[in-house]
Amino acid sequence: MRLAKLQQMMSSLSYQAMLITDPINIRYLSGFSGSAGSLLISAQQRYLITDYRYLEQARLECPDCQIICRDRSVQSLPQCIATLLQHEVISCLQLEYNHISVELFIQLQQELPCTVSASRNLPEQLRAIKDTTELACLRQAAWIGDTALAWLLPQLQVGMTERDAANLLQQKIYALGADELAFPTILLSGARSALPHGKPSLRCFEKGDWILLDFGARVEGYRSDMTRTVILGEASNEQQQFYHTVLTAQQAALAAVKPGITGHQLDQIAQSVLAQSPYAAYVGEGLGHGVGLALHEFPLMRRGCQVPLVADMVVTIEPGLYRPGFGGVRIEDDIVITQHGYELLTHSPRQLQQLPA
After folding, report:
1. What is the pLDDT of residue 41?
2. Among 32, 117, 249, 252, which is most buried by a count of CB atoms within 10 Å?
3. How many Cβ atoms from other residues are within 10 Å of residue 291's Cβ?
4. Any idea where the Creatinase N-terminal domain is (predicted)?
5. Long-range Cβ contact pairs of 132-138 (< 8 A, separation 24 or more)
6. Is the bond preceding residue 113 a cis peptide, omega within 30 degrees?
């Protein structure tokens, strides 16, 4: 079904053939989960090219493709492609320029009897709209994140290091059934929470600290992505105001979510709230991104993104403020676009939580 949709899109753009080299796109389109493969698609044919290590795996996972086992010692990938396409009239092969090495690009130029050209992000456009199986995986991944966070927060205490807390969270994510972490956990405290993508350190928690947790689980390849920011102890008035500003921005963006609105428009709604606050100098760029097999997928929820949202897209909404020397706050949720609005996939409380210190 997915390959047929891709071939229809190719036909509409007059693409004669396309080489898929991104492992995530290969998996999405063909089912192949190995680490060495290429997907060659023409108007009539679908070839999964791999080597002896993955031959049986490919046969099991890719029922809609003709499996080609290439002997890497005697045949280059361009030579293999040329052989497969020799009976078709192909003057140009479309490539995923974002997912191909310079070395392979030069080889293809030199060894193919046709020209090569950049393709549009067709697989990414297909991936943006999730089917029921994908949504079930994303819901499960989000549930794991919610459950792991609820388990972890009561255990956070003064003197615990960021790294120890991150390890506890990650162990719980695996214990709840995740295949993998969605990405390396971000868990930062105090002034370090102003690092948007910092790594957990050996810093010990102190009373009154911000603790920012950005993490996710992966289920059958599909990822959740949630951020919560809490206070260890009683929040100061300024911390409460800082947090409430971010929460207000997120709520404003969520209230506007519906099919047809663009990432640009939603970003502007959240940015306007933050820009009119006393903390305009500390606003983080962008509002969110699509999420699925990759952590950051099409569409990107930021200035300039004119892609209208449609039902069954899954995106994050995650405004943030990052004030050096004071700390950062990000509140991030995964949502699925519905016919009339959205559905939250992540359900952890968004009001500021003040943990016993």
Report:
1. 98
2. 249
3. 26
4. 2-129
5. 134/222, 134/292, 135/312, 135/314, 135/336, 137/219, 137/220, 137/221, 137/222, 138/219, 138/222, 138/223, 138/224, 138/291, 138/292, 138/314, 138/334, 138/336, 138/345
6. no
CB-based contact 311:259 (threshold 8 Å): yes
Nearest residue to 291 via CA among 332, 325, 234: 332
Q: What is the pTM of this model?
A: 0.95
CB 329 within 8 Å of CB 209: no
> What is the rounded CA–CA span in Å between residue 206 and residue 190?
8
Q: SS in 3 state form for 163-176?
A: HHHHHHHHHHHHHC
**Contact between residue 227 and residue 331 where contact means Cβ atoms under 8 Å apart:** yes
Longest dimension (CA), the chain: 73
Tokens 């519905």 label which residue? 338
Q: What is the pLDDT of residues 143-187, one digit of tens each?
A: 999 999 999 999 999 999 999 999 999 999 999 999 999 999 999
CA distance 237 to 216: 30
Using the structure block, give the residue that is written with the tokens 């506007």. Answer: 256
Residues 6+ apart with CB under 8 A from 42: 16, 17, 18, 85, 88, 90
N residues, the chain: 357
Superfamily of domain 129-355, CATH level 4: Creatinase/methionine aminopeptidase superfamily (3.90.230.10)
- In 3D space, the residue among 165, 175, 130, 156 whose CA is nearest the CA of residue 293 turns out to be 130
pLDDT at 6: 97
Dihedral sign computed on CA atoms, order 125, 126, 132, 133: negative
Compute the C-alpha angle 344/352/206, nearest 5°. 130
State the Cα–Cα distance between residues 168 and 172, nearest whole angstrom: 6
CA–CA gap between residue 211 and residue 328 (Å, rounded): 9
Question: Taking the chain (357 residues) in consecutive chunks of 10 residues, what is each chunk's mean pLDDT?
Answer: 96 97 98 96 96 97 97 95 93 96 95 94 97 98 98 98 98 98 98 97 98 98 98 98 98 98 98 97 96 96 95 98 98 97 98 96
Q: Which of 345, 142, 320, 348 is nearest to 257 (CA)?
A: 345
- Domain regions of the chain by residue span: 2-124, 129-355
